[in-house]
Write a structure and sequence with these properties.
The structure holds 2 protein chains of 2 kinds. By secondary structure, chain A is of the alpha+beta class. In chain A, about 30% of the residues lie in helices and about 25% in strands. Chain A is built from 16 helices and 23 strands. In chain A, helix 3 packs across helix 14. Chain A is globular and about 65 Å long. In chain B, helix 1 packs parallel to helix 8 and helix 12 runs antiparallel to helix 13. The longest helix of chain B is centred in the N-terminal third of the chain and has 33 residues. The radius of gyration of chain B is 19 Å and the shape is globular. The chains are: A alpha+beta, B mainly alpha. At the A-B interface, helix 2, helix 9, strand 7 and strand 9 of A face helix 1, helix 5 and helix 6 of B.
Chain lengths: ~475, ~325
Amino acid sequence: MDELDKPRFFDEMYEADGSARAPYALYNQWLENEDIKRLLKKSAEAEAFFRRTGITFNVYGMQEADERLIPFDIVPRIISGAEWRRLERGIEQRVRAINAFLHDIYHRQEILRAGRVPAELIANNEAFLPQMIGVTPPGGIYTHIVGTDLVRTGPNDFYVLEDNARTPSGVSYMLENRETMLQMFPELFVRKKVRDVSRYPDMLLRSLAAAAPPASTGSDPVVAVLTPGIHNSAYFEHAFLADQMGVELVEGNDLRVVDGRIAMRTTLGYEAVDVLYRRVDDDFLDPLNFNPVSQLGVAGILDVYRAGGITIANAPGTGIADDKAIYSYMPEIVEFYTGEKAILKNVPTWRCSEPDALSYVLDNLEELVVKEVHGSGGYGMLVGPAASKKEIKAFRDKLKTKPANYIAQPTLALSTAPILTKKGLAPRHLDLRPFVLVSPQGVSLTPGGLTRVALKAGSLVVNSSQGGGTKDTWVLEE
Amino acid sequence: MLGRTAGGLFWMFRYLERAENTARLLDMGFRIALTRPDNAADEWSSVLETAGIRAAYDHKYDSYEQDRVVDFMLRDKDNSSSALAATTAARTNARMVRTALTREAWEAVNECWMAVRKSIHGRISDRDLPDVLRLIRQQNALVRGALHGSMLRNDIYDFSRLGTFIERADATARILDVKYYVLLPSTVPIGSSYDNVQWENVLLSVAGLRSYRHAKGSRINAKGVAEFVILDQRMPRSLAFCYNKIVDNLGYLERDYGVRLRCHKLAEATAQSFKNRTIESIIEDGLHENVLAFIRANTELALQIERDYRFME
């Protein structure tokens, strides 16, 4: 515990004096009576369980044999009912604003006319799809599924780090982590009422079905999950969700245009699909309309979509809303469409395309986090305080060559929570990704989410592709 | 069901069956090497022939030594139908059709792959070989058990079973293709001890030595073995048995889908060819010719099933 003696960061579980915070009180009582050896054994059991179940992900560029496990930490991350209610309101507000923004951007572009967001930021953005101009998706929903990344720096300080509005992943871990905890420590769930997350697949299916296109005729819309295939890093999740919803898991080569609909090849012939939950990026979705060499999509799907023959979830072109260059305008966007101040904070962001910001960033690289505007997965970013002189110099050159490609943010003092290590509990930095479903009936947030945790002491990078792990996330019923 | 899913199930179970058949062939070869070391090289050559990989082996090695053959058949990267490659392919197909499998069936095939991969990670010594072969058979049995015990009897199950029996019929027919001459009445003086061993080997490679004795008595003879392996309806690896199952499973699909296709006719024609047929008439028509014709018909049926149920575009 000696690492805990110097609390430079807000810790989710412990107060500065080492006592447990309120949401963790009961858990802490339980933990104090536990034997570290038993916990380590449980932790090894969990790993064996994940491997047997095939909850693995493929690392790009690795052989198939190198399917990896995302390490699972058995100490839950606990959120109080009051904390959650605030997050819930903030996320819902943000998601509504994002949908309104997308509709506006692809129609009248009021926000650009009002000068609240610079027009060139949209026009020159690769995530903006001109093919979507004037298209209104069925039910008016652009982002059916959103995974908002949050970080915390203090008791009441939550920041939105990213608004993953394209094809957010990780929800299968939210569900499997809980399942694992229920099996390993049933006694914990008797002590404390933890809100249920297991209805997510059912709610996902309902909200997808509710957004069926005009061409859908049957009473039960046909839903399918589109995956790039077994080599994709998130394949496990694609199969998991299709299985849990009881719908087909399709690949591009299972689909084609038949009589103005998208149809899947079954053993009995082609059957129309009403709603496609796609886990394929925009660029690969339609070789006729986007990347012509893509094997992962369906030729002509965009034309069928525009004619109301199918619902694509999330809609093509939603990336313009979670682009890192747009991110810094989110407070304005929320205010513009909802008429309210944003409930959740944005991380202050320097847009390196602006000369003043660039010169500030260049002068303070050692203290900043610099991100590529289009990057994801923790790749292509500089964490100033952790970087070597050489890395900083390399980034300085990159920034000077293509400033518009980067944004910079202060290094946040991310909160920590204890993880179980061989030597006992030790604090590690973490973030939180709750999952939001949007349907014509409304916005719903599953009480829980994916908590990602850096496993290396001091590390601020929580991405699983960079060696991060996950925790079960508890929202208390209170 | 997606056509691709039907294909994935079909191939998942073909590959599992293939891995198991490879283990049985190795079992038989190993037994001969122990009991009749003088015949070992010939027997290893015919084991490779039966598995359809002798050309690939000859390309790499110039003699039939046990440790080389064993390594080649279990795990050599140059052998795309090694036990390890077949198990991996089965598991890859299972991942592809994950949503069609119960959690039990998926975990069984995933564990089968993990266990087989771990056990044949390096070269296998003579001492460890029996354990490794037993493990492969056991793991396959667990997958089969999970399938039987947890899966709905629907089209998913039918395509799984079709893969199993098409592959098994092919394997049994290949053994006959390589060994037909020992089952002909005229090649060597009847009743020699050499014959007895050869017949036993045929039975061993279809895991039928003990069952033969139970079903047909302790005296083994060529005609009896041929009849047992080709026509016996009780023997789960005989050609007739496999085709009864194939016709059954295709029949369930026909009823379930309400569509009769060309594959139904093909399967029924082959199954019919075993009905009211005596082993004498098969031998008289030419045992080898009959076996070759069967292998062709079985391959054609597999392709027809693939087309009729749209495994691919």
